[in-house]
Amino acid sequence: MPTSILKDKSRFDLNYYDESKTANAFHSHFEYEVYYFHKGSCTYLIGDKIYTLSPGDVILMNGLTLHRPRVLNKEEYVRSTIHFDPEFFKKMLSGMSMECLLQPFMVLNSCRLHLNAEQKEEFEAALKRMDEFNNEKTEISTYRFQLAFVELLTILYAFTKEAMENQHKAEDTSDQADHVQQVISFIESHYMEDLSLERLEQELHFSKYYLSKIFKKVTGFTVFHYVYHRRINQAKIVFLLGPSSRVTDVSFNVGFKHPAHFSRVFKKLTGVSPEQYKKSIYS
């Protein structure tokens, strides 16, 4: 069902068990989104992350990060999606002292959850109840629809509570962590350019020796191991979206000076050459 009985009141959209295939470009929106993958084949791109989905996967999104599914024409693709205005439901939930149910979208931003068999059964049952109340379109069913959605948010909160607690524990507010975050933010904006420790030192005003030491301490990676991962991940996204992309062009566009170096790093990090990776996508 492409729309819900609450749409006019709260910018709420329920699309249940959708089997259609439409072209989806990268997009963003202000609504929070719950995406549930029922069955088929789909690769989902959110920002610089690539998720190969399995039936029973849930994606939670704050909506602002660019995202899109990639679906092969010959493959089945069944999903349910919910888009909702967080401000409307924040007011509604605060009246019940339950605004914490929106925390997964704020704390985890955009994340993928693997549901086990029991969680999958519980989540699918809640989705189905929402759709049934949505189809009735009566005054009482409207109330029950809202309650069913609150139940769904409660289920998601339970699924993500441990992840959120781990996220809070991992948030190091020390100066070193802040400095590493500055390095990561700079790399995110400039990974496709010629990067060196000397440039980081000049741009961020920290000693390159200090940056190298704290980056490895906080992340477990060297600075350039991280840069290479970011570049290769971007190359994989380009290959996914553009089957005709030339390996040489992609290598230059993601920041490598020499295609041979790009190919070596790509194989080291993925286990296959760029050419083999392209063939595996479109075979």
TrEMBL record:
GO terms for molecular function: DNA-binding transcription factor activity; sequence-specific DNA binding. Keywords: DNA-binding, Transcription, Transcription regulation. This is HTH araC/xylS-type domain-containing protein. Residues 181-280 form the HTH araC/xylS-type domain. Pfam families: AraC_binding, HTH_18. InterPro entries: AraC-bd (IPR003313), Homeodomain-like_sf (IPR009057), HTH-like (IPR037923), HTH_AraC (IPR018060), RmlC-like_jellyroll (IPR014710), Tscrpt_reg_AraC-type_HTH (IPR020449).
